[in-house]
Amino acid sequence: MNSKNKVYISVPVNIARNITMGIKEICPDSEVFSSSKKYYADDLVFLENIKAGKLEEVPDIIVTIRPEILWEKNYLIESGFFDSQYRYKVDSFIESKGFLDEKWILKPVFIMPLIIFFNKGVKNPPESWESLMKARFKGKILCTNENTPPASLFRQFYTHHFGDEGKDFVDNSVNYRGLPIDVNIAVGKGEYDIGIMPISFAKFSRDNSAAFCWPPEGALPLMQVMIMKNGFSDDSMKAADFLISENVQQVFSKNAGFIPVIPNVAPPEEFKKNNMNLLWKGWDSFIDMA
Predict the structure, then answer these.
(1) What is the extent of the structural domain holding 230?
(2) Tens digit of pLDDT for each residue in 118-142?
């Protein structure tokens, strides 16, 4: 007898409930679940199991935003465990910027832009990623907990782009705690001057006390992808179809500020206003970061 099809979906908290419920409805016979551990840590356990060849302990479809899994793109391709046949039309911007894994092992679901959030009381606020490293901001910057996807990407980006100075900055000038909402509140209250967070959380501030800067180098893109085991079931396909449907992609864009990946879905206003500027130099550069 076949064991139950497993659909693992870790999406940011602001839309998790609706998305999980939607998939449970269309896949009533599957086990549909999200991260049981804090900060999407299950995703990394699945990665360890993949590397150990324990495929029976890996869900049939994994939807993840962890950069650590994206950094393993080449390994995931070479392993031969994952499907490359399920494909769909992606938006020309996503394609032209080189976000697409040509082998289609990592199938894009949306892109979450990370930007700089700051309290309006800050004189001469930061105007770029590089400017954050100025001495006057030391100790005044808050990012999410070190185990979260945004912090993981943020730390690797500085170390990769700015070498020793970048590593020293992320290790000694930045504090890490909580989720994006916690960072938002701390900056809004003035406990910290600056926060690093996804645009979806930066749009709201208490009493209009904070603003955000879309760095001229580009927002840091956290890409959410799905990986499907070879020979995936109908339920895995239904879950994938659901995530890239026009309706759901509109929800991602409108309600969460995520950049949709399929054609004909309007991207978030802030993204358009900032010339759709993302700091992405292609997969090779991204994998080098790790």
Answers:
(1) 6-112+222-289
(2) 999 999 999 999 999 999 999 999 9
